[in-house]
Design a protein that fits this description.
extended; Jelly Rolls; Immunoglobulin-like; single chain; seven-stranded antiparallel β-sheet; 9 domains; seven-stranded mixed β-sheet; mainly beta; about 0% helix
């Protein structure tokens, strides 16, 4: 192989070599390869004879190759053919768009010796030099046609789109005459075309880095530029003005495309520089090359090492240290007591040092958090945005050792101990009975000691709070931890009666353990928690047992506390315990409503028994909506695996033979569209046992007589008749019975549903002598008007002689025997119905009925019925702001499918996408509004309607409807496009209730990122009429209600108009003011930037003046005194009216 010796100037370099690649000039890591590369004429620019091709190796040189001696760089027997030709192709059009071999010239055929070091050049001398015409593009093709491969890399040029087409294989040798489909690539090899001689100077390069006008550039930047095809080297100059070289004189940096400013010649911080690159060759240098400018970065912040961030226990004369910043000539320190503060040091210049110890005025204080920042600077720059760090100085507080924090059983003359603080010259102590309190000791100076014993005894069983502070000549500790302790208790350990004991004797014996040093004990007993109505701190002496001499009541719960004392001091906070006395039988009337229990416990003197393997009766909170008037009920909850078999027994009740008694109760199953069948039995007998329940009073175990199932409700049971259901409604049951013998009887309720049913509820158990006067049943209400209704009922089996009394109220509290009846809350009737009059409209009422059998013989009150009077007519002016968060009284909403999403809804949440629709700044008192959710359902819903109550417009000479609304699409405030289907339409209609004809007064599908106030002057035909207004949202205008497009509505009013035109819109965002108001001759407008024109209208609606090109000052001297409307016609088409008064 012969290498031609060519001068450095008889060559042209093509390509920047900006990448490392193994895809060109051939695929050395494959056994065979064939590559064609296109080099554009614009990258060569010189014609002549090409005598050699030179490529540059890059990356790691392989040490082993296949087909050669091991560890040699490249196979010695690899054979290459090199072809060169002209082409008009700008790129390869496809994977088969090869330049035909017939258009190429074989310029070399032989072996090549591979480089041994990275960066070494491989020159291929052409045995047949090629004459380039400098018109066409150049094709270089290389065929490696003998096996052998190693993973070589070469400098290449990226961005050469589809200018490389290649075939490669480990087994198949490509045929250059008819090559198969190859692979296109956008990288070509950097190549030096030897033999081409430049005849003109090269053209200017373009500086590519730093980018022109770049900022924050390193002070040792790497400067890069584009290749100039005829250049053999490049000269570079750097200056501080365009074209100058005062920083770096014109310097030849060689045939390279980058240059890095060395650290020894680092540029200045925060300074603008201009760099100019001049390509050159043997003919000369490029001229008039444009400089590129950049600005170096601001000097960086130093890396601070001490005090460490958030350090604690730091010296009052702290040492600050930091690392050096290249180019810095000094450092400045700021210290403050707040974040960003400089009240200690304000940008203090510490000089060109790397540490500084603070020992100035003001001195730092103990246990204070300080904030500090260290900045670097140079002649041209100062660092900015450096991280602020903080530290806390050491504390002057001592470390307290006794009493331990939270200690109990502490002596009433405690000893306080603490460890020394080396900076302290004395200590002070504060003690109080509340946190932060000083009512025992207030900052008492105990001297320079480490222990202090309180000389005056504290109280027993009291929690105390204390703080110990240290001081010296210049400071007193602050923020020292407060600790607490509780003194010795004189509370004894009580052993009897046990806490929550039942069946306790009526003359119980109280026992307790001795407390050291006490001189006696006191006992308190009451029938309520904390009560002392039986014994009030009674002194029983220094004994450990006490028997109550006076019997307590049977079946009663008592609360008691035993306290020890020494002299005049008694302990406090001793535990209260409770017990219940032995249960005895009770007389009728017996009532059990479960209200005094703590769920799930049972009432006193009752019991529950589980006779099976299911669950057991318990108490629970009454479910809402089931008709139980009280808050707690007896409850059986299902067992998934086992049937119920549990009894609940009442207290024993004294009954007399031959007397008729009545037991009443309420019962229910669980509510829901799936009804579970339950089973319930009511019985009584002479023992609270299963065997003792010998008399069955009632069974509820079939669906016979059950209410009809509503549409959509089903029975959830394999046997649809095996059990009862009440649809979850509390149902009253009663049974009359007569015991055969006198004695004590217990009443039992048995739950015996099959497994995996649901809930049974029982409440309001009442046992009494059978009344002689029975209450009516089936109370119903009909013929409801705005002020009245008609109540009907079913007469009892014994019709009363003196008729009935009806009681009604807006409260659901049932009447009793002591309820006072009068003309405003009751009515009487001799039949089974009664009219009610004088009721308030749109109001919920509750009504009860009782029989009157004689002057002193009246039945119990019936169960209640409820009703709501109809809505009346409201008088204008009328407003509604939906601040209740629910459908307003006398308003209604409906649609073609009455699901929650298909109706108007009410609330204050972000409904529900895009712009947040919060009430901030919207003049909503409670931030509530009405809205239609557009997201579901999408289709089939056209008339989501909200209807107002009737409003009488009498008294309005110019009735006006006003409301605020919001409809916007998309997640941005002002979407630039609106899909065709994003057009939910709001329509507002009015009707005269006398004609029932609806008239549209407003319709819109527009979007806006704001609440809009709509003011509509109603037609004169509505003056003096009673009207209704309805708001209709059409969610399916084009077959799809859009996901983001909700409609919100608020602040609806019917009021006297202000002579604005029908459909006038006032946009809330145009908060423009007029002043002074009242005015004399000139009225000023606060902002006219968005005002197109101004109209002035008098109170009769007459236009009196216009300003087509308004200024901020309006001259209105010629107007008469009075009130005017100044109407601002905005550039966006909206209007704003301002009331103004001329003096």
């Amino acid at each position: 192989m012969v290498a031609l010796g060519l001068g450095a100037n008889a060559q042209i370099t093509v390509g920047s070599g900006n990448t490392t690649t193994n895809v060109v000039p051939w695929s050395a890591n494959f056994g065979y390869s064939y590559h064609q590369m296109i080099y554009p004429q614009t990258s060569i620019t010189i014609g002549g004879t090409i005598s050699s091709l030179t490529f540059t190796s890059a990356g790691t040189i392989p040490t082993t190759s296949t087909g050669a001696t091991p560890n040699t760089p490249q196979a010695a027997n690899s054979n290459f053919k090199v072809y060169i030709g002209h082409t008009t192709k700008a790129a390869f059009g496809s994977a088969t768009d090869w330049e035909p071999l017939s258009n190429l010239t074989l310029v070399y055929d032989g072996t090549l010796t591979m480089p041994t070091t990275s960066g070494q050049q491989l020159t291929i001398p052409l045995t047949t030099p090629f004459v380039y015409n400098n018109t066409d593009n150049l094709v270089v093709a290389i065929h490696e046609y003998s096996p052998g491969y190693a993973n070589y890399n070469w400098l290449g040029n990226t961005g050469q789109t589809n200018m490389n087409l290649y075939l490669r294989s480990d087994t198949a040798n490509p045929d250059p005459i008819s090559p198969a489909s190859g692979t296109r690539a956008s990288t070509t090899a950097k190549v030096v075309l030897g033999g081409l001689v430049a005849t003109t100077p090269p053209s200017c390069s373009v500086v590519t880095a730093p980018a022109n006008a770049a900022t924050d550039i390193s002070i040792t930047p790497t400067i890069s530029w584009s290749q100039s095809p005829l250049a053999t080297s490049y000269e570079i100059a750097i200056g501080t003005t365009p074209g100058s070289a005062n920083i770096m004189p014109l310097t030849d940096v060689g045939n390279v495309l980058t240059y890095t400013v060395p650290a020894a010649n680092a540029l200045a911080y925060n300074t603008s520089y201009y760099v100019t690159v001049y390509p050159k060759n043997i003919i000369g240098s490029a001229t008039a090359c444009n400089p590129s400018t950049f600005k170096t970065l601001v000097i960086p912040c130093p890396s601070v090492t001490a005090p460490s961030s958030s350090a604690t226990g730091v010296s009052l004369t702290p040492a600050f240290t930091w690392s050096s910043v290249t180019g810095a000539t000094g450092y400045k320190l700021s210290i403050g007591t707040t974040a960003g503060g400089t009240d200690i040091l304000n940008n203090y210049d510490a000089g060109n040092v790397l540490n500084y110890t603070y020992n100035q005025t003001p001195a730092l204080n103990y246990n204070i958090k300080y904030y500090y920042t260290v900045n670097s600077y140079s002649a041209t720059s100062s660092s900015t945005g450096c991280s602020e760090r903080n530290f806390t100085t050491k504390t002057l507080c001592p470390t307290v050792t006794a009493p331990a924090s939270g200690a109990t059983g502490v002596s009433v003359t405690p000893t306080f101990t603490w460890s020394t603080n080396t900076d302290a010259t004395g200590y002070r102590i504060s003690i109080g009975t509340t946190t932060g309190g000083t009512d025992i000791l207030n900052n008492v100076d105990v001297g320079n000691v480490l222990t202090y014993t309180l000389s005056t005894a504290l109280n027993y069983g009291i929690k105390y709070y204390y703080t110990i502070n240290a001081y010296n000549a210049t400071a007193t500790s602050a923020g020292c931890s407060e600790r607490s302790f509780t003194t010795l208790t004189l509370c004894p350990t009580v052993s009897a009666p046990a806490s929550n004991a039942v069946g306790v004797s009526l003359t119980p014996t109280f026992t307790w353990a001795a407390v050291n040093n006490v001189t006696g004990y006191r006992i308190s007993i009451g029938t309520t928690s904390g009560g002392t109505d039986v014994l009030n701190s009674f002194d029983v002496g220094n004994v450990l047992t006490y028997t109550l001499p006076t019997p307590l009541n049977n079946s009663t719960q008592y609360y008691y506390t035993i306290v020890g004392y020494i002299g005049t001091q008694a302990s406090s906070g001793c535990s209260e315990r409770t017990f219940a006395t032995i249960c005895s039988s009770t007389n009728v009337p017996y009532t059990l409503d479960f209200e005094n229990v703590t769920t799930p416990s049972l009432p006193l003197c009752t019991s529950a028994l589980n006779a099976g393997s299911g669950n057991t009766w318990k108490t629970a909170t009454a479910p809402t909506g089931l008709g139980f008037n009280t808050g707690k009920v007896l409850n059986y909850s299902y067992n998934t695996s086992n049937a119920a078999n549990t009894w609940f027994f009442t207290q024993g009740i004294n009954l007399t033979a031959g007397v008729s008694y009545r037991i009443k109760y309420k019962y229910a199953n669980s509510a829901g569209t799936s009804q579970y069948l339950e089973k319930l039995k009511v019985a009584y007998g002479n023992a609270a046992t299963v065997a003792g329940m010998t008399n069955v009073l009632a069974t509820y175990e079939t669906t016979t007589g059950a209410p009809a199932l509503p549409t959509g409700t089903t029975i959830n049971s394999a046997n649809p008749t095996d059990g009862f259901y009440t649809l979850g409604n509390a149902t009253t049951g009663f049974v009359d019975f007569t015991p055969a013998s006198t004695g004590v009887y217990y009443f039992g309720f048995q739950a015996y549903s099959i497994k995996n049913m649901n809930q049974i509820y029982v409440d309001d158990i009442n046992i009494d002598v059978t009344p002689t006067c029975f209450e009516p049943t089936n109370v119903t209400v009909a013929s409801i008007t705005t002020s009245g209704a008609n109540v009907s009922w079913t007469a009892p089996s014994l019709v009363p002689n003196n008729g009935y009394e009806v009681y009604y109220s807006t409260s659901n509290v049932a009447p009793n025997a002591s309820t006072v009846l009068n003309s405003s809350n009751s009515a009487v009737s001799s039949s089974t119905s009664a009219p009610l009059a004088g009721l308030a409209s749109a109001t919920n009422y509750y009504v009860w009925v009782r029989s009157v059998c004689g002057a002193n013989d009246k039945s119990l009150w019936s169960t209640s019925a409820t009703f709501k009077t109809l809505c009346g007519t409201f008088n204008a002016p009328f407003t509604e702001n939906f601040n209740s968060g629910s459908l307003a009284n006398c308003w209604s909403t409906y649609s073609t499918n009455n699901t929650s999403y298909a109706l108007w809804q009410f609330g204050s949440s972000a409904q529900d996408y895009g712009t947040t629709y919060s009430a901030t700044g919207q003049n909503n008192t409670a931030g509530q509004f009405a809205y239609v959710d557009a997201s579901d359902p999408y289709t089939g819903v056209h008339d989501v309607t909200l209807v107002s109550p009737s409003v009488n417009l009498a008294g309005l000479s110019s009735p006006t409807l006003e409301f605020r609304w919001f409809k916007n699409h998309g997640s941005s405030a002002n979407p630039t496009t609106q899909p065709a289907y994003d057009n939910n339409k709001l329509t507002v209609e009015v009707k005269d209730v006398a004609t029932s004809t609806w008239e549209a007064v407003f319709t819109s599908t527009s979007n806006a990122a704001t609440w809009r106030t709509q003011t509509i002057a109603l037609p004169a035909s509505y003056v003096g009429k009673t009207i209704q207004v309805r708001f209709i949202v059409d969610k399916d205008v084009a077959g799809n209600g859009y996901f983001y497009d909700n409609v919100l509505l608020d602040d609806i009013s019917l009021k006297e108009g202000s002579n604005l035109a029908t459909g006038e819109i006032k946009i809330d965002k145009n908060n423009i003011k007029a002043y002074p108001n009242p005015f004399a001759d000139v009225l000023s407008i606060s902002d006219i930037s968005n005002v197109k024109s101004i109209s002035v209208v008098d109170i009769s609606g007459k236009l009196v003046k216009t300003f087509d090109k308004p200024e901020s000052t309006l001259h209105l001297r010629e107007l008469n005194s009075g009130m005017y409307l100044v109407i601002l016609n905005m550039k966006d088409g909206s209007k704003q009216a301002i009331k103004a008064i001329k003096k």
